[in-house]
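Troubleshooting log. The previous structure file for this entry was overwritten by mistake, so regenerating from the original sequence record. Sequence copied from the archived sheet and checked twice against the printout by T.R.
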Amino acid sequence: MKAGCTLSDLVRALQGEDRRPALADSEEVPDRVRLMSIHGAKGLEFPVVILPDLARGPGGGRGSPVEVTRLRDRAALAVSSRAAVSASWLEHEDVEEMHERAEDGRLFYVACTRAQERLVFVHAPRKGVNEKESQLRFLSDWGYTKAGLLSDGPLPKATEVDGRTLLEPAEARLAPTQPPAAPREDPVERAARAVKHARDSLRPPFASPSGLREEAEARALASDLEPPPATSDTVQGRRARALGTVLHDALERWDFRDADALGALIASAAARIAARESLAAEDLERDARALADTILASDLPGFLAGVDVVGRELPVLFRDPDGTAWSGTIDLLYRDTDGRLVVADYKTDRVPDDAARAHYRAQLSTYARGVARVFPGEPEPALELVWLRTGRRERLGLESQP
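Regenerated output below.
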């Protein structure tokens, strides 16, 4: 904004930002901060996610002077006006409030699960707002109140997660009395000190079993795509990542039997992801269908259709004995014909080397440790790589536990 702009100018500028297309991910800007709505963040993950203003109350309010709606469960009208409301409207409000609260909870869950390593809640108490009406109510099971956590350490009912409360330093708060006559502290220095305090007080609470596998697979996929424009490698990398996302999305929902259904799932995912990444949907769908044809020509669909699938895209969260907390997602967990659990991961490498296999083995071994905690007393889960370029399955040995 230019100097001398009014508040109205700022509001108009921010409204214009909402209509601008989102900037594409770029490896050239690694430290940027993205401001997103919860709906806009669906399907994405980030190392650090900050959820601000949790103490705010519900928004909205009655709009038009007279409102009329039909009750869902019977033939009756609910009427509300500024003068009075019908008894059926009170019932309607109760039902709508219940649905809104449930939707608020689902959205809050989506927001929290976007974090890969660290989730930061920010709030300051607000006058006139009931805590039970704010976002803080969703954290009550973790022992979180408007005053923060009762103590730092493992959270109640989520002992795999370390919680910490950081309060604004006393010297940074507004003084209740007149400030001293001494010169005020430079705001930049105060902010730098607050950042240093936060960094010194916290350690990354989660480690990711997958590490950098997404970037490695994107580079492998990019080698198969048609030559990109000569402008840069950024578009090529985005296409590769989007292609991997389309395949994972379709395989998560496919029944391993209906080839036409797989094609429809790919078309739907390609259109959705291409719009999000500002890519050509036709090209993305064509590339995904080419890999799907290879899968359909192999014996992979027939095999997976005949086993007991325990789950797909399963979230994993647990802590090792050394204190390391792991968070990740298992592509596929199934029981083999002999009853043994198998942790499977879809891979898109063209020519996997020994270094890649060693990395994948460590990744799957971590997932297997988490699965073993859910199924105590069973044999150790098997590790399996599913090569999507060939439809071949490859078993790996389990790493020893730390």
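The chain has nine helices and 13 strands. Archived copy saved in two places this time.
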